[in-house]
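Field: COMPLEX_INPUT
Field: COMPONENT_COUNT = two
Field: RESIDUE_TOTAL = 673
Field: MODE = joint
Values follow.
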Amino acid sequence: MAAVKSVTLPELNPSGFGAPEFSTPESQDSEAALARRFYYFLSLQREVEDRIERKLYRQGKILGGVYVGRGQEAIGIGAGLVARPDDVLFPCHRDLGLYFIRGIGPREVFAQYMGRVGGLTGGKDGNMHMGDLNRRIVAIISAMAASVPVAAGAAMALKYQGSSSIAFNFFGDGATSRGDWHEGINLAAVQKAPLVLICNNNQYAYSTPLEKQMACRHVADRGVAYGIPAEIVDGNDVFAVYQAAQRAAEHARAGKGPYLIECKTFRMTGHSAHDGGDYVPKHLWGEWAAKDPILKLAGKMLDRGWATEGDLERMQAAIKRETDEAVDWAERSPYPDASELTRNVYEEA
Amino acid sequence: MPATTYLEAIRQGIWEEMERDPNVFLLGEDIGIYGGAFKVTQGMLERFGDKRVVDTPIAESAIVGAAIGASFMGLRPVAEMQFADFITCGFDQIVNFAAKSRYRWNAPAPIVVRAPSGGGIHGGPYHSQNPEAWFVHTPGLKVITPATAYDAKGLIKAAIRDNDPVIFFEHKALYRRVKEDLPEGEYTVPIGKARVHREGRDMSIITYGAMVHVAAEAAAQMEKEGVSTEVIDLRTLLPLDEETILASVRKTSKVIVLHEATITGGIGGEIAARITEKAFEWLDGPVVRIAAPDTPVPYSPPLEEAFLPNTATVVERARRLAAY
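Field: COMPLEX_OUTPUT
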């Protein structure tokens, strides 16, 4: 039986910068403390992805595809902070925050995007195609929903091993059109595999709007077809996502099988860095900008007295410093040697 | 003790690995209660339980994908495609997920995908194919095609223990037709090593799977005609045992490459290319390819018989090659 590899929850700042102390009192278990973690991870994902998409890509320092989660960061992070360190995560390509939660820092992420040795794949793959089995986070492939059957199998294995760990699988609305999505969920449902399924319904799959993707109104409507519970939450409200993920995780851990959460959100960017998203009706950008998950969270923190404006500014400043340092680190990381090309295709003696 | 069939040899190999290692488990369509469409997994549900012998929905992509996910968690899944023809439904999981996983992010996917392949059973276009070349064209996979009961058992055991994804093509026409006495004790057969099925001096037939037996019949015929013919059973197509191929070519200087799969883009072209690149000066004639024509596998007996390479065809081409 494979031993469960130990994973430690990351420090707040994986790259080493200390998060500034807030002026407001908090206890570790309080909503305030949770809000602070949310705020840190949401802001870190936003800052790192802004740097990737709006600076390094345009400077030609990052080649190939760049896919960011701007506007939908609350989904991965809200659910990811419910996961225990021994749970297995299957992120989609807009869930950078999940890597930070698992202790993979901006340094490794920038190096990954730049194709450097210091990246999580050492230059073998790019962008969000990264994972680390020791930290129980599985790399996607480009075919949408391909990770759903894989997550189902991981969940089946955890059940077989008698573990209380569960799997979390993230995907977008477009992925729910693929056969793999349906095959994987059906298998997991039949097997009552402990699998939490989290859809970021950001309303566009590349340029294709939802109404050309599916004829049912909600992704969650599909849950009934597989005999699994499904619910809809505001994907821009990190607390709502967190609470839904708690319900789902409890269901899965209790041996009741998969649970589907549809998070309604909006992709505040084109499909990728080369795509301006001109096909999106203009008014939608403004409407959804007002529902930004970081603004929403910050408003709540200020309203409840969980933080002051100064606290949040200091957090943002610390994240910018952490990001600056990480970019420098990644740029100093060498490119892989060409001799690496043929290595590790198969197990090597 | 009666001789063991090719089918029973595979069953024994899986059974022994299930007994040896609790991480080994099986998933596929109709493999549990029914014991598999060909009965390769018969009795396993009763012995090992439904946690380790999992009857799945009809969903090949889910079967392969779930095997990959389970392998990431430390298990050793053996997935059955009911017929190799259906492996296309799991193609993406095999070639894009499993095959590239170690290279991309250092996550080995030690799965075995069993695929009953091949014609000669009047199965028609969707129960007769030999799709091995698609997978030979996929770095990161290992592709195995045993021809004998001994190798089928030893190679399925080696495949289950291997730390890379393995596609295991078991030829349906051999299941009950080929049998031999197997050793009492435990053994494995190394992946990536070809075998000299029959020694010869004047000509080599390089082949695998069911065609090994066709080649052996043709070789016996050629022997009578005074042409000592060697038969090389590749056993593994990826990685290819180039050394054994080239050693045989250097010895006989005349080569036929024979396979049941269709000719264009088949493994025969790859082998012919390697021989001409690496042993050109040893050749006394063209490298001859014998394979099925570029058509789907037809159903009606006269059509299928015309499709499958047979002993008469091999003998006829061998005579022409011998005349060089």
